[in-house]
């Protein structure tokens, strides 16, 4: 029997409470093209799980199905024990699943701190710019300011708190993007290439930061091509080819799997 979106799903074999997300037998077609073909991924709580595969293998499409951007043609997505298949991204965002680019783009003229504050979930009916317009913070907002500062300290941007976001470097923008995602209270963060186009030093800093957040209880599902840098930070890996999951396991096992190597060579 198909579950209805939002219904609590009885844990089946292997579901349990161990996984924050189970996407099972996902199918997504674009016309005649099967972009995701019966793919199943299970994301354990408080881990960093990597998704790899050659160009066009269906990684981004799978992430988009999980985050609610595409409705799958088959399969279901269970988040926190609840069937969320077909829920739109903003509903999932409120349930605690965020894709980094989903957070509104930074306002270049506002400060780093203001940009983090604006990513917090607001009370219904309150304009997100209200505190800025009033020019003062209410007590509940002071709590948010404290939270924003602790997140900024974590990403190492606290010393830039009063700088306009538009003055940040590309790498600092990525850190700001992660800070803003966290401010939303996300429990599961989905990221498409968090270290693309970033120099190796900053890439390691970003990944170190992601590890610290994992240790604080946040779960990450990440697509990344720069395996040389990312591998050692990752707990588990899935590999896709031609829409299918072809391997999963410890990252070093997955990248040395002959099927995975062949898929990169066009086999
Ligand atoms: N909106 C779309 N409309 C039609 N075809 C699409 C669409 N999005 C993706 N595809 C096709 O689906 C397949 C999977 O693409 P997808 O972007 O998910 O792969 P990927 O593994 O993320 O690739 P890359 O690493 O290059 O980002 C490709 O053949 C792609 O051309």
TrEMBL record:
Biological process, per Gene Ontology: amino acid transport
Coiled-coil stretches: none
Residue span, ABC transporter domain: 21-267
Keyword Signal listed? The answer is no
The record's listing under InterPro entries reads: AAA+_ATPase, ABC_AA/LPS_Transport, ABC_transporter-like_ATP-bd, ABC_transporter-like_CS, BCA_ABC_TP_C, P-loop_NTPase
GO terms assigned for molecular function: ATP binding; ATP hydrolysis activity
SUPFAM superfamilies from the UniProt entry: P-loop containing nucleoside triphosphate hydrolases (SSF52540)
Query: What does UniProt give as GO cellular component?
Result: plasma membrane
> Is the keyword Zinc in the record?
no
Q: What does this protein do?
A: Probable component of a branched-chain amino-acid transport system.
Q: What is the name of the protein in this document? A: Probable branched-chain amino acid transport ATP-binding protein LivG
Which source organism?
A: Pyrodictium occultum
Q: What is the lineage of its organism?
A: Archaea, Thermoproteota, Thermoprotei, Desulfurococcales, Pyrodictiaceae
């Amino acid at each position: 029997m198909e579950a209805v979106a939002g219904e609590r799903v009885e844990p089946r074999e292997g579901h349990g409470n161990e996984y924050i997300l189970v996407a099972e037998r996902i199918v997504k077609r674009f016309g005649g093209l099967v972009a995701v073909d019966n793919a199943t991924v299970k994301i354990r709580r408080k881990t960093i799980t990597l998704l790899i595969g050659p160009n066009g293998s269906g990684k981004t499409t799978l992430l988009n199905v999980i985050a609610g951007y595409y409705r799958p043609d088959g399969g279901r997505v269970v988040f926190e024990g609840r069937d969320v298949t077909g829920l739109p991204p903003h509903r999932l965002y409120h349930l605690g699943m965020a894709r980094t680019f989903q957070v509104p783009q930074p306002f270049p003229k506002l400060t780093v701190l203001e940009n983090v504050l604006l990513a917090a979930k607001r009370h219904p009916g309150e304009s997100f710019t209200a505190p800025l317009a009033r020019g003062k913070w209410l007590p509940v907002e002071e709590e948010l300011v404290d939270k924003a500062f602790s997140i900024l300290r974590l990403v190492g941007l606290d010393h830039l708190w009063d700088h306009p976001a538009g003055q940040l470097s590309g790498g600092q923008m990525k850190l700001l993007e992660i800070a803003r995602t966290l401010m939303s209270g996300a429990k599961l963060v989905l990221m498409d290439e968090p270290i693309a186009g970033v120099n190796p030093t900053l890439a390691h800093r970003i990944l170190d930061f992601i590890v610290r957040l994992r240790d604080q209880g946040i779960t990450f599902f990440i697509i990344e091509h720069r395996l040389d840098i990312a591998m050692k930070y990752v707990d588990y890996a899935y590999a896709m080819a031609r829409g299918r999951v072809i391997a999963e396991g410890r990252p070093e096992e997955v990248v040395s799997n002959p099927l995975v190597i062949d898929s990169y060579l066009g086999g």
